[in-house]
Specification:
Layout (H helix, E strand, L loop, with lengths): L8 E6 L3 H13 L3 E7 L7 H6 L4 E3 L2 H6 L5 E4 L6 H10 L3 E4 L7 H14 L3 E3 L7 H11 L6 E11 L2 H6 L13 H17 L5 E8 L5 E9 L5 E7 L1 E12 L2 E4 L12 E7 L6 E5 L4 H13 L9 H20 L3 E2 L1
Parallel strand pairs: 1-2, 1-4, 2-3, 4-5, 5-6, 7-10
Antiparallel strand pairs: 7-11, 8-9, 8-15, 9-10, 11-12, 12-13, 13-14
Helix pairs in contact: 1-9, 4-5, 5-10, 8-10
Length: 340
């Protein structure tokens, strides 16, 4: 498969999911090094608006048609969690690079197989943790590396929201079904695990957790504790039944960084964070100019496909994230500490 001669990555998208329609496809359309070649959806009659707005060349009603299209270089997969493994493997074996929505898979074992197939196929695969590409996220990580708050000692991360009561009552949403990769831990807790590992620059050595489970068996309310080397701790909260939390904070030996409740998805507005000294109650608010983190993510992936730079989120790191998620799920189910 040859790349577009004008150094543009031609994207194919599997599924007209909300995240694709509202965030990622428009980001691809606006990107400097990509365009949307094809979209496959089981209900093409509902895709007319996004096809027109993003100038999508091909509209298919079968996912396989995107994989068979020689004009597609890379595939974006925003399907329900339990389909990530199956369709990523099919895309890689069809010779496509893959940007897959979080969580990459439903288990570390699945993620390892995906990593292996990508390596054997000579194709790139990346988990779509868009928050890592936002300038605020990168500025905070650099500040931590430069010692702005001393030695990081505690990271608190939370991604919680309240599902509509009728959705919780019906129980038919894939996020509420374990067999479809549901549960708050996998669906939104993956952000907290990811940011803690990223900011510590290390892997946890042990985890503990508690969870409340819904009627279908998926966790709907979750809290976990991670122990890192050198006395580092992290808490991860994920919920489908609480008020909004979408934040993280990093507490160090001589200060703290705190974010408002837009930590992972600040949209395009200016993004704030507060830097506090060790004894300060309020600290100083810093503003980072607004940016489209989805566009930054797809442009980064396209540059990697074009061999202009390496991936920032390698497949092996996503395998590690899944291993921690597996351990947290086990800890919640057994009530025991799980060593990693």
């Amino acid at each position: 498969m040859g790349l577009s001669p004008n150094r543009t990555v031609r994207w194919g998208v599997l599924g007209n999911a909300t995240i694709a329609r509202k965030c990622v496809i428009p980001a691809m359309h606006r990107s400097e090094n990509g365009r949307v070649r094809a979209l496959a959806t089981r209900r093409p009659e509902k895709a007319g608006k996004i096809v027109e707005e993003s100038q999508i060349e091909k509209l298919y009603d079968h996912y396989e048609d995107v994989l068979a299209d020689p004009g597609v270089d890379a595939v974006y997969i925003p399907l329900p969690n339990h389909l990530h493994h199956f369709w990523t493997l099919k895309a890689l074996r069809a010779g496509k690079h893959v940007l897959c929505e979080k969580p990459l898979a439903c288990s570390a074992a699945q993620a390892r197989e995906m990593e292996s197939v990508a390596s054997k196929a000579g194709r790139l695969m990346m988990e779509a943790f868009m928050y890592r590409f936002h300038p605020r996220s990168r500025q905070i990580r650099q500040m931590l590396r430069e010692g702005a708050i001393g030695k990081p000692m505690l990271i608190r991360a939370a991604f919680c929201y309240h599902m509509a009561e009728e959705i919780l009552h019906r129980g038919d949403n894939f996020r509420l079904k374990p067999e479809m990769g549901g549960g708050a831990l996998l669906d939104v807790g993956c952000y907290g695990v990811s940011v803690a590992r990223w900011l510590y620059g290390n892997e946890p050595v042990a985890v503990q957790a508690q969870a409340v489970y819904g009627p279908q068996g998926a966790d709907v309310h979750f809290a976990g504790l991670l122990r890192f080397p050198d006395s580092g701790l992290a808490t991860v909260e994920a919920s489908f039944v609480s008020a909004l939390q979408q934040t993280y904070s990093v507490i160090g030996s001589s200060g703290a960084v705190e974010l408002p409740h837009d930590a992972f998805i600040p949209w395009d507005k200016d993004a704030a964070f507060t830097l506090r000294g060790a004894a300060e109650e309020h600290g100083k608010v810093h503003l980072v100019p607004g940016a489209d983190e989805y566009r930054l993510m797809v442009e980064h992936f396209a540059r990697a496909v074009l061999a202009e730079q390496p991936l920032d989120i390698e497949a092996a790191e996503s395998v590690q994230n899944m291993a921690v998620l597996d351990a947290l799920a086990q800890a919640a189910q057994t009530g025991k500490t799980v060593d990693l």
